[in-house]
Amino acid sequence: MTGPLPDVPPVRVIGLPRLTAGFDEAERLDRRAHLLTHGSPPSLSADRLTELAGAVALRGRGGAGFPFVRKLEAVAHHARRSGVRPAIVVNGCEGEPACRKDTVLLCRAPHLVLDGALLAADALGARTLVVGVARSTAEQSVRDALAERGLSDRRRGRSLRARLVRVPERLVSGEASALIRAAEGGPALPPGRRVRAAESGLGGVPTLFSNAETFAQLAVAARMGAPRYAATGAPQEPGTLLLTVSGAVPSPTVVEAPSGVPLPYVLQTCAADPAPGGVLVGGYHGAWLDAATAYGTVVTREALAAGGGALGAGAVLPVPAGTCPLGESLLVARWLAAESSGQCGPCRLGLPSVADALADTLAGGGQEALEAVRRAARTAHGRGACKHPDGAVRFVLSALDAFTDDLAAHTLGGGCGRETAGLLPLPAPDSADTADGTGTAALTAAAGRLAVDWTLCEGHGLCARLLPEAVTLDPDGYPLITDTTLPPRLHQRAQRAVSRCPALALRLEKP
Q1: Helix, strand, coil proportions of the chain in percent (round to 5)?
Q2: Torsion angle, alpha carbons of 482, 484, 485, 487, to 10
Q3: Which pLDDT does position 511 carry in this prediction?
Q4: Residues with Cβ < 8 Å from 204, sequence gap 6 or more?
Q5: Whole-model pTM?
Q6: What SS3 state is found at 72?
């Protein structure tokens, strides 16, 4: 498939459903259907909840895979030490184009996610619950779920205040500190320094921050108990997991499967090509596996890491043997570079340098261009205000390591002879642009005029970097926009600048 994924793809199950129980009977489990399917959740003390999370080896399902028990312990410790009530933040933003598992949960089983978040809130004595989303479908479903439970942001007569935060659909919007800033009324951007949410998160209080699937898994484990929960899946990583499978498959699919399932079986379930040219695991902050490695591994963090991959956010993307995986990687590398929040050099300057050097390498730039890729990657890695540069660098370097024969063919100048089909999903505005970023496919788009809401603009300057033909910056870093109609060739990238404005201050008006 090509183009962006649907918000709520079809769901398949390998084995018995847990997170997706009831999906065969209802498109969305409202409060009543949820209780009929899952039953009422137990009430657990902080000690019992921590013991449960440790017994089932629950890890965060948003990408980093951090042990959830350590988050619980850290939040409880800092809350006791500071003498304040903690907060709970559910990250359902899922700004990566190849992931939809959290969106599926929030749209179809929102009460399961809320169960886990409320279990933690009750155990830790939290006063505030925030759910962050980036898509309108998830926003409406969560709003309905909060209303069905009688939860709101009003303080009167309530021990817990709950609210929803909608952020721009960007990769960095789901970064922990970016979402917390957005929940406090600021831009959905990481701050200039790294801050541990467990120490000082929402409103400066210790904050338990994890993604939607993690809280849903906690709710399932609390109902089942540790022994029964751990009876499914790999011994070291028990339970099920959600995978978003796209790329060279007939239809993007979210799959619930036991951990430890063979990766080939997951691909077969989704009718992928039995002889792929490679498989990207973990998404665009993940890593590539060559076909032989992919078809000899199982889906656990340990097994994927041993083969050079990563479970990451649970995205699995095969590409067919007739498609150039390095060309596909270049399209994603350019998108990753454009996703920078523009706040630090390693990201704002380093990632475009990595993408440009990769383009030169694939165009036959020789060993010098290849060394430029690795040099730019070393410069960007480990120096950003968030983990976006690290993830982007890992993605690019894994492509060089996994497809050495293709790399040699490109580096020597002849190319591999295979097409770049744009099989890896990217947002619609980017998919219309050409690989060199000129946006010539937008020639037929309707014209428009850029405008700024000065009550919102905070001078981030991202619009000028995305659309330098139409936007410049004044000496204070605020945009200067000519009051003229944009030519049609710029309309697509203008839409992109509007959608990525961190403060939502930019808009595109009809002339």
Answers
A1: 40, 15, 40
A2: -70
A3: 61
A4: none
A5: 0.85
A6: helix
Residue with tokens 């990563």: 310
Instruction: Please state, in angstroms and rounded to a whole number, the distance separating the CA atoms of residues 415 and 409.
Output: 5
Per-residue pLDDT at 292:
94
pLDDT digits (tens, 9 = 90+) for 293-310: 999 999 999 999 999 999
Within 10 angstroms of residue 258's Cβ, the number of other Cβ atoms is 19
DSSP label at residue 27: S
Residue 275 has pLDDT above 50, yes or no: yes
User: How many angstroms separate the first and last alpha carbons of the chain?
Assistant: 35
Distance CA 185, CA 183 (A): 5
Distance CA 412, CA 497 (A): 37
Distance between alpha carbon 251 and the CA centroid of its chain, in Å? Answer: 20
For residue range 449-468, list pLDDT tens digits in order.
888 988 888 888 888 878 88
Name the token pair of 190: 């990481």
Q: What are phi and psi of 306, to 5 degrees?
A: -65, -30
Quick one: angle between helices 31-38 and 136-149, nearest 10?
80
What are the angstrom distances between the C-alpha of 459 and each of 184, 215, 479? Answer: 18, 36, 7
Model confidence at 89, pLDDT cuts 50, 70, 90, reads very high
CA distances from 357 to 154, 222, 372, 394 (A): 52, 49, 6, 15
Q: Note whether 45 and 119 are within 8 A (CB).
A: no
* SS3 state at 341: coil
Please answer whether residues 232 and 238 qualify as being in contact, where contact means their C-beta atoms are separated by less than 8 angstroms: yes
Asked if the model's pLDDT at residue 117 lies above 50, the reply is yes
- Which residues neighbour 292 within 8 Å (Cβ) at sequence distance 6 or greater? none
Non-local (6+) Cβ contacts of 235 within 8 A are none
d(CA 293, CA 304): 9
Phi/psi of residue 411, nearest 5 degrees: -65, -35
**pLDDT interval class at 446 (50, 70, 90):** very low
Nearest-angstrom CA–CA distance, 279 and 198 = 35
Q: Which of 294, 300, 298, 225 is nearest to 59 (CA)?
A: 300
Instruction: Convert the pLDDT of each residue in 217-272 to its tens digit.
Output: 999 999 999 999 999 999 999 999 999 999 999 999 999 999 999 999 999 999 99
**Residue 19 contacts by C-beta under 8 Å, 6 or more apart in sequence?**
105, 109, 112, 213, 216, 217, 220, 240, 242, 256
| Closest C-alpha to 254, from 407, 45, 106, 66 | 106
